Amino acid sequence: MPKTKKRSNRPRGLSRIDQPSTRTFGWFVRVGYHERRDGSYGPRHTKFFGDVSHGGKAKSLKAAEKFLRDIAKGKPAAKPKAKAKKKK
Q1: Where are the domains positioned within the chain?
Q2: Are 54 and 45 in contact (CB under 8 A)?
Q3: The model scores a pTM over 0.90
């Protein structure tokens, strides 16, 4: 009897990125797919939660899951703050 892959209990739209060649480690969220003008589909909300910037693998996962819950509740995604320009 062929073995079947165990289904993950992670929410839909949450993916793990482990790419040593580019030193990219973290969770990537893509949710709210919509139809584009050209007829293809793309995610309305995308966000990357890096392990280093969130203090580890578990904390970045929790932040990504919180983002998913907030989007599901209808809260708007927080826009990144603009960086202040340096004075010369």
Answers
A1: 14-72
A2: no
A3: no
